[in-house]
Amino acid sequence: MTDTRRFGDSNLHTAVDNALQSFTGVLGCYAKNLTTGEEFGYRADEVMPTASVIKVPIMAELYRQVEEEMVDLEQRVTIEADDWTGGTGVLKTFMPGLQPTIMDLCRLMIIVSDNVATARLVNILGKDQINQSLREWGMSTTELRYNMQLGGDIRQYAVSSTRDLGRIYELISTDGFLTAESCAAMRDHLGRQQHLEQIPRGLPFNQFASEIGVEQPVRVMNKIGNYMGVRVDAAIIASPKSTFVLVTMNEGSSDHGFAIDQEGNILNGRIGRIFFDAWGSE
User: Fold this and answer.
1) What fold characterizes domain 6-280?
2) DSSP 8-state code for residue 47
3) Whether the predicted pLDDT of 43 surpasses 90
4) Which of 28, 70, 216, 262 is disulfide-compatible with 249, CB 3.0–4.6 A?
């Protein structure tokens, strides 16, 4: 009997199965080669917690509202003491009164997964409007719930599937829904990512290449999410051979720590290398 949860190259499935042998949780994975059109799926439509990868659709809604002249990226927002929230980010460590622009909030939300910046943007954009746009963009399994306390059920933060997340990354990569200028701005945010411990960890990629004058043939544009027993990463990977989208979501790991070598990080890194070797390596 055919397993409808699986589609794509059987050799890639074998490699993913091998990577999963010692993993204590469950995996969802979706990939699409934007150069050749080839697709891969492993439990690609399973609804799983996104953790902070939901911040990419939030970013997309920001740029939609910018295009509609509903939001000004140069507007400054005062960070107050009661904006404090736990988890990742840097704004929570600064004194109240800082006035970043909305553009700054977006950059912080993506590159260091800042939760204070995210909360301010959700308040500005509107949770219901974000979810409405997700439906319009064809993301049927994705929902920003934004109804949890740190330490609670991560599914009450946001859920999606790897195929849905792959869709919005494909739209961003191909200028497929907003203007080319907006999509380029979103790729720029993603390309400045500072959390590279998941999909990019085993790739021939140097995030400081442009700053130190080193040629960089591989570009990675990604956003991670992490929580206790949960690791998620979604990336656009561009090499001279091809450009492809890869999304990995895992949950249920017995490793609830946040070390660089947490087993979900390692698994997503192995999968990143599998697809790079198949689709991106010369």
Assistant:
1) Beta-lactamase (3.40.710)
2) -
3) yes
4) 28
